[in-house]
Amino acid sequence: MQAYLSLPNELLHNIIEYIAYVPTTLPVSPGPLPNSLSQRASPELLSLSVANQRLRRICLPFLFANLKIKDDEDATNMQEYLVLFSKFTKVLTIGSIGYVSKTATEIIVSQIATQFKQLFHVELQDTYSMPHSCARYETALLRTFLAHPTVTSILVHKLPDETMYDVDLSKLLLDNARTSSAYFVPDLEKYFNQGMRLLSLEFYKPNKLDHQFGSKIFPGLKQIELHVDHSGVSFSWLSPLMSTHPTLNELWLYGVRQHRDVPPFISSFIAESHRRDLERFFSVDCVGLRRAPGQSVEGWYVIGLSLLHYDKDATTSLLELLPFVASSFPKLETFGLKAYQCWHAMYDIGEFSSVLACFLSLKTLYLTNVYRLLNFGSRNRKSVPLARLIDPTDTLDGLVPWAETGLMLFSSLLAKQVRTLERIHIDDNSSYVYKGFASRHKCEYLFGWIHVLNDSRDVGGLKLKHCP
Fold first, then answer.
1. Terminal CA-to-CA distance of the chain, rounded, Å?
2. Nearest to 228 by CA among 257, 270, 265
3. Of all helices (H) and strands (E), which one includes residue 283?
4. Geometric angle at alpha carbon 27, from 26 and 33, rounded to 5°
5. Collapsed DSSP state (helix, strand, coil) of residue 366
6. pLDDT, tens digit (0-9, with 9 covering 90-100), for 360-399
7. d(C-alpha 321, C-alpha 281), whole Å
8. Is 332 exposed, middle or buried (0-12, 13-18, 19+ CB in 10 A)?
């Protein structure tokens, strides 16, 4: 600590800015990044903020830049201490309106909102389960922040109440519109006419989309998600829609394996995998695409991919499949691999990590039921400090630390091999953590995020999920 205190304030500020927030929470399966701007203070920032007065002065702007009101208690506390931090707050998140009462709403509207001098973004979190009686609270909040002089954007997860027909909604961003119909657009148009923008469209029956849909206008649209079923999907609408939506830069397809027609974006990949006799080892579950502004339909490139991997014969198919995937999609940032019916295959963790190093742009890796396929060989997990203490009275608990420790050993090796990697999501409900204990009423399996923490490629963050 003394070494840090000898640094000038400007350098200390840069260091604290680097460690101020925990990594953004991502979905537990491949998909688009969340639109939320909210960030959560890291444990390191909290510790430094109480170390001494000098560090506290540097930490305060980061500590209070993002605030969240989850319930009435938060609103009351914020009202009491607002004078201490309101000048630092830039992003305010308000929890589900169903948990914020009339009293809390009145506090926010009449006393809190006006005190923020640098506030530029507000998010009203998911309100789909909101009681109808709470709608007026949300309307009051929306009207307040729409009129706030420094707020430039408000992220919402549902359409505003119809009573807001007379309000300028140019600050309003609708996070996502989900539908199974191509004819729902009139429901949105009246809000578009008031200035509202839509960030994401999600279709559950995309086979109903035709060329006529391409003429629709969705102000602010950034991404489209299509849940493909056996009926497939036509892309005749995509080119005309792109020409009128310059901000549209991501397209995600889910359930691709359910339809026999291959999407044109990955047709050459599938054809080549068939030629190499690799097609029998996998099926494509999800594809994410991106395009640079102004590019045509041919300008889409793959940034996300999720594969189901099959290997009943205990071959080394992944050692051939993964480099092929990496060379086919050099800009791949998100990759998901789910092992299915791989009963006997085993891979040395060093060899497996080296193969994943072929992914030169990979940031996020999802591994499902893959940990059980790893062979640690001469790498002794017992030479690594345990991830947690062992309860000597619990046989199952005795296995848990070794499983966590082995996974951290593998993740550390992977982080050093794949230099662009930022995070790994583990979901392994078939690992040996609970094998042999099926008759017990308690089990734990590997589930959670592992983050690459710094430039030295250290890893941390895993927590096992408990299953009663």
1. 43
2. 257
3. strand 282-290
4. 60
5. strand
6. 999 999 999 888 888 876 665 555 554 454 454 554 555 5
7. 8
8. buried
Instruction: Please enumerate in sequence order all residues whose Cβ is within 8 A of that of 36, keeping only pairs 6 or more positions apart, or say none.
Output: 24, 93, 123, 155
Query: Is the Cβ–Cβ distance between 40 and 19 less than 8 Å?
Result: no
Averaged pLDDT for residues 21-33? 86
What would the pLDDT profile of 79-120 be if each residue is shown by its tens digit?
Answer: 888 888 889 999 999 876 555 566 677 778 777 888 899 999
Q: How many residues does the chain have?
A: 468
- Cα(181)–Cα(202) distance, rounded to whole angstroms? 10
223, 32 Cβ separation under 8 angstroms:
yes
| pLDDT tier for residue 433 given thresholds of 50, 70 and 90 | very low
Question: To 5 degrees, how large is the angle CA 94–CA 199–CA 34?
Answer: 60
Beta-bridged to residue 367, according to DSSP, are 337, 426
Query: Nearest-5° angle of CA 275, CA 280, CA 286?
Result: 100
Q: In terms of C-beta density within 10 A (0-12 exposed, 13-18 middle, 19 or more buried), how is residue 149 classed?
A: exposed
Tokens 């005309």 found at: 240
98 close to 134: Cβ distance less than 8 angstroms: yes
* Nearest in space to 353 (alpha carbons), one of 441, 400, 276, 417: 417
| Sheet strands side by side (includes 66-69) | 66-69, 91-94, 121-124, 153-156, 172-174, 197-198
H/E element holding 197? strand 197-198
Provide the 3-class DSSP secondary structure of residue 155: strand
Write out the two tokens for 67. 């605030």
Tell me if 342 sits within 8 A of 367, measured CB to CB: no
Q: Sign of torsion, CA 406 410 411 415? A: positive
Distance CA 255, CA 204 (A): 11
CA 41 to the chain's CA centroid: 17
User: What are the φ and ψ backbone dihedral angles of 335, each rounded to 5 degrees?
Assistant: -135, 130
